[in-house]
Amino acid sequence: MFEGLGSRARLVAPVLLALLAACAPTPDPPSIPEPTSALRPAPDRGPVPADARIADYELEARLDAEAHRIEGSARLTWRNTTSRTVDSLPFHLYMNGFRAEDTAWMATSRGNHRRSAQSEEGAWGFIDVTAVRLEESAALRVAGGVEGPAVETVELVWSEDAEPSTMTVDLPRPVGPGESVTVQLDFTTQLPRVFARTGFFEDFHAAGQWYPKIGVLEEEAGWQAHAFSLFDEFYADFGNYRVMLDVPEDMIVGATGIRTVEEVSEGRKRLTYEAEMVHDFAWMADPDFVELLAEHNGVRIRQLIQPERVADGEIHLDTQIAALDIYESRYGPYPWSTITIVHPPAGAEGAGGMEYPTLFTTGDRAAIPGWLRASVFDERMSGVVVTIHEFGHQYFQGMLASREHLEPWLDEGINTTSNVLAATDVLGEDPWISRFLTQKLYLRDFLRSAIRGRATVEPIDRPARAFESVVGNYGSTIYSRTAAVMMTLRNLAGTEAYDRAFRVYCDTWRFRHPRGDDLEQTLVAELGDRINLAPAGGEAVELDVREYLEQALRTTRQVDFRVERITNRRRLGETGWRRGAGGKLEGGDPPADLETPARELADDGVDGVVVVHRAGAFEVPVEMRVEFADGGVERLIWDGRDRIEVFEWPGRRVERATLDPDHKLLLEWRRLDNTAVTASVYDEEGDGLSRPLGDLAEALSLALMGSFGP
Amino acid sequence: MTALRRVLRAPGLIVLVVAIQLVVALILGSGVRAAVGASLVPYSLATDGHLLGATFELFGDHPGLPVGFRQVAVGSSAIALVLWILLAAPVIHRLRSKTPAARLAALAFSQLPAIGVTTLWHLALRIVLLAALGLLTAPLLDHGAWGLLGVAATAVALAISTCALDLARCHVVLHGARGFHYSTALRAYREAVRRPAVLVPSMLLSFGQWTCVAGAVAVAMVMAGAGGTIWLVRGLAVLGVVLGLTRVAVAVEAGFDRTGRG
User: Which of A98-102, A303-307, A571-575, A706-710 has the lowest mean pLDDT?
Assistant: First the structure.
């Protein structure tokens, strides 16, 4: 059944069946013990560089589920691994983005996030830091030096910045290169009713970005702590976390890392979690969660799902297992021992589709009855796609941890590219994503439709805050267009070379916060500065990889080619006046077949002509397939530099010309003008679309008239 | 079978109804074909199965085209509504007995107000019925095969409603029932559910008719672009018309049974 598929496809082919199958009731989950280490065993987890560990947290949190409030404390040990000396510590107070109407987040979002909106009940969220103390004995010790005999604390001065999503803590003495500092913070976090990733809905609590998070000290740029606005996501150093949660006894909790302690007393449940080499810690609690457990390749997969959606658990689990295999195969070992998938309840959709280290929230499959999916309409976009996307973020955010707020394409865009590849791994090349009867909308159609219009008005490589929500182009530009850029490069450069380059990028930059330049340099190094796209023996037509990336990422140039004209004209003869041997003009016969229309001339009596037009400003080579009346087919590659190129075939009648016949240029969203035929062929074949659409309109008309009567 | 024979004895009627539908649909469909063709010329589409993607791209470039489709839907519905109010009386008379064309034309106009008001009363009752049923069955849609039960219940309700409309119109046209009063429409519902000998064949014919019209759209989708598709579509539409007329004939014969007169 799976013959002819690649090894990766064979590996995950059973998942395809599961994706297509109707959901079946989920059996009782197996009991799979909590791992004893937050990281997988050394042989399985891949390289985890010790020097990437910068910020360790010990957090304590007590949830008041009635008030949706967290009383918390944090103990942060931060290491200065740069050559800089700092005298203050900036912290993110992300939850303050929801504190008032004029915060950067609320001003840019106007209380809307994706398809969820702020509500009057629980309108506001905030984090109120009430104390900051320095642990004196450990405050200025030199790395490797002797710690003080006892911890004494010194109250520190701190203040929120003008934009309350950050604050600055002044240190009594500077922290130099190689030194570390430990500070304690007390805080209260009020969760808003969830509409943007974090908050509560009834008994469900999603605690994301709930504690003060220190900024990132960069060697060249200094402290990086950004005001939190609508499209900004998160940037933080790696470290180890030990977190003690105190929640009502009936709460079922999912969190980053592994649970090491669980104690129940006096109606409360006290849970301790440990996580290693992560840059964030999130937790979710709901008394209604149903726990589904599985294990794959030594990774414990835990789903917390709403009771009414338990039947969907299996398809999400199968998807997660397939994604784990694919991502490990493509991008290297998954380093952690757990992954937790949280399904927010109905009403808390705003919490869905968000990634945290070793934990993510997903979305539900569209409520289309199974019989309808099997017969009339089916789709593969809802639910499982969110699971693939958010798991992908475990790599392209969780592990590579690029600067999401400054280069969102490197996170969301590259992750979306990886999702496209995962979909093709599971479902085959060019998979369909929705189906109406037998007509299907394919992934490449979807990607192309997503990058038209507003997706083209601004360059990709811009900070998140440079995108205005009112323009409505962030998602299509950052997610979809980046994916189209990368998939186009993959198609041109060759799938093996591209996949190898990406593996090198991931292996090189695990836990290293790569930047866009790092990815671009890796691609250039691995693919080569210039790639010859011409077939062997042909004249070289090169793709300049740097130039391609520059155009694709930092300009709004569009890839758009069209067959401007296809025609056959009478072949030049030898009649007319010519100088004879004596220098006199001789001949003067009229041309043969001068009045015969070209379509009536013999095939070898015409010159075939195809005029190709680069209608977009983006310069990239493009392939053309030309079909001739003699049955011949020719493929050629045009460098795409000039605006117009005229191709001519003396003595051959052309019938059809198709630009980019293999659909390599996913960046080209306007393709209806990519194939042109001569008038005679057009008269025979038509345009291929007017007949089916006209038939459909006629059928629709007949159906409606038939339905209403007699 | 007698209802079908009654229909087949009126070939002119079948031709008239079929011709009206085919011509209207042909005109509307040709408009779409011409508009799409004009938008594409001189380009030829090698869709290699990506018909939906190409259609979305075309509609994105030419937003007037989907509006054209909407107009086809709205126009066809409106034409059907007016047409079947106008034709109801002559069709019922012709199915009862052979009647001169001039007489049928006169009946079409003289009984138009009563038929129109009866139809409006009926539509009001149908909306109430379907809304109530929708409220009851909507929760089933999210429960697997139970959702199919909801759809089946809706189809049955629609078929009962259609049978009631046929009966109401027959009572107005043939037996002088009060077309302007809601009770005529209401009584027709009661009669439909109390007379299974009428209701069951009427429902089956309705299901057959709807299968034909849904099949016409499905064929246009499934066989998109293939030669001969449109003739299969038209064939299904003709079959649907015959089944629909037969269903009306069932209601006409129900009047015979009830009153004992022809």
Answer: A706-710
Do residue A549 and residue A565 come from a single domain? no
| Residue of A415, A434, A546, A544 whose CA lies nearest to A483 | A415
pLDDT tens for each residue of A260-308: 999 999 999 999 999 999 999 999 999 999 999 999 999 999 999 999 8
Backbone φ, ψ for residue A376 (5° rounding): -100, -50
Q: Are residues A62 and A170 in the same domain?
A: yes
What percentage of residues in chain A have a pLDDT greater than 70? 93
Burial class (CB in 10 A: 0-12, 13-18, 19+), B183: exposed
Q: Please give the residue of chain A at the shortest CA–CA distance from B218.
A: A437
Quick one: which of B67, B33, B63, B69 has its CA closest to B225?
Answer: B33
Do A512 and A607 share a structural domain?
no
At which of A185, A218, A237 does a domain end?
Answer: A237
Q: Exposed, middle or buried: residue A307 (CB in 10 Å: 0-12, 13-18, 19+)? A: exposed
Same domain? A664 vs A525: no
Residue A2 confidence (pLDDT):
30
Rounded Cα gap, residues B187 and B191, in angstroms? 6
Backbone φ and ψ of A265, nearest 5°: -165, 145
Q: Is A22 on the interface with B (CB under 8 A)?
A: yes
Best of B76, B79, B206 to substitute, by most chain A Cβ atoms within 10 angstroms, is B76
> Which one, of A354, A120, A112, lies nearest residue A230 by Cα?
A112
pLDDT for res B201? 96
Per-chain mean pLDDT for chain A: 91
A695 falls in which pLDDT band (50, 70, 90)?
Answer: very high
Option in A441, A690, A698 nearest B40 (CB): A690
The answer to whether the CB atoms of B145 and A370 lie below 8 A apart is: yes
DSSP code of residue A381:
S
Kindly state whether residues A499 and A603 are assigned to the same domain: no
- Binning chain A into helix, strand and coil, the percentages to the nearest 5 are 30, 30, 40
* Helix and strand numbers, DSSP H then E, in chain A: 17, 39
What is the pLDDT of chain B when averaged over all its residues? Answer: 89
* Residue A537 and residue A586 in one domain: no
Beta-carbon contacts below 8 Å between A and B: 244
Inter-chain residue contact B57 with A448, CB threshold 8 Å: yes
Range of the domain at A693: 683-710
Question: Distance from B16 to chain A by nearest Cα, in Å?
Answer: 12
User: For chain A, what percent of residues have pLDDT higher than 90?
Assistant: 78
Say if residue B132 is exposed, middle or buried (CB neighbours under 10 Å; 0-12, 13-18, 19+).
exposed
- Minimal Cβ distance to B76: which of A658, A682, A705: A705
Q: Which two tokens stand for residue A338?
A: 């757990």
The reported pLDDT for the residue numbered A35 is: 97
Closest among A475, A194, A240, A204 to A349, alpha carbons compared: A194
Distance of CA B219 to the CA centre of its chain: 18
**pLDDT of res. B134:** 86
Label the pairing between strands A439-442 and A116-117: unpaired
Same structural domain for residues A76 and A184? yes
> Domain count of chain A?
4
Cα dist from B179 to A447, B125, B255, whole Å? 56, 15, 16
Cβ pair A278, A204 in contact under 8 A: no
How many other CB atoms are there within 10 angstroms of residue A579's CB atom?
10
Mean pLDDT of B111-124: 90
Whole-complex ipTM:
0.92
CB–CB contact A698 B28 (8 Å): yes
Mean pLDDT, residues A123-148 taken together: 74
Element housing A400 (H / E): none
Query: Which residue from A600, A374, A431 is spatially nearest to B148, judged by alpha carbons?
Result: A374
Show the tokens assigned to A151.
């911890």
Average pLDDT (B33-60) is 87
Q: Do B220 and A440 touch (CB under 8 A)?
A: no
